[in-house]
Write a structure and sequence with these properties.
3 strands; single chain; three-stranded antiparallel beta sheet; 80 residues
């Protein structure tokens, strides 16, 4: 439950405009939306989601995850 509460708080922080988020924090948020680690390419973890066609590479594509969350109307897993 603490992990879900953390993800919800982090999402609120990002939506309020904060960009002061560590990689590990953001990874927890991505997992909270149902993305799962597919593979690691070098130092770049690649995530997939059953409802999302695109792959998510957390280190290279700024803003990609939030764009996919909006496009596919994803919710945090505890909201389903």
């Amino acid at each position: 439950m603490a992990k879900k509460t953390f993800a919800r708080g982090l999402l609120s922080k990002i939506l309020a405009g904060s960009r002061n988020v560590s990689f590990d924090e953001f990874r927890l948020l991505v997992e909270g939306f149902g993305f799962r680690l597919s593979r690691v390419r070098g130092s770049h973890p690649v995530f997939t989601h059953p409802k999302v066609k695109e792959l998510v590479n957390l280190q290279n594509v700024k803003g990609q995850v939030m764009e996919l969350v909006e496009r596919y109307s994803l919710t945090l897993e505890d909201e389903r």
